[in-house]
Predict the structure of Transcription regulator.
Amino acid sequence: MMTELPVMPLTKNDFAQNVFGRRSIRKFDSDFKITRAEMQEILTQAGRAPSSMNLQPWRFVVVDSTAGKTKLHDLVMTNTPQNDTASAMIIVFGVDHPERDDAKIYDAAVAAGTMTSATRDEEVAEIDAYYHTMGDLAREKTISLDAGLVTMQLALVARAHGYDTCIIGGFNRAGVKQAFAPNEELHPEIIVAIGQAAENGYESVRLPVADTTTFA
């Protein structure tokens, strides 16, 4: 069954402000909590991010309890201020074998009327063949890329809800996997601290487009 995008008013629906006003926040209002109902809406909207063959090779573990954040504390290394003050720490896990969900996803597309049964069969056969011959490195790179896409979308969706984030790549991956992975086929890619900012955040600079872009 297709997951429908919730219809709800967004607190800050200004695209330019959400994108260009984003900062990495390291100190949040520790008294403010995002409800689990709203968190599910945020993650549903973030899940609209693109992914290779639409396999959505990500899973989220939302660490919002005192016990969970205590367990996570020593695993996030220098990022303990975010862990201690954010409403939640969202662990973005990559799925080792996303192709195992292809039939489920494409059956839902047929049921929703966005794909024919014939196209579904062609797509599933193509995915199965592609992943069967894919090397480990290519698989890992594809999953990491898709995890990055959903993380960026999560950060912008959070802004639209009136919240801020800090995207964290420095943490004890083996420890986080052992403590929080729902199963062995998931591996942690990124952690996103989310909550109500208690600081403005550092205004970083970017290289000019002339340094990063060529035309061919």
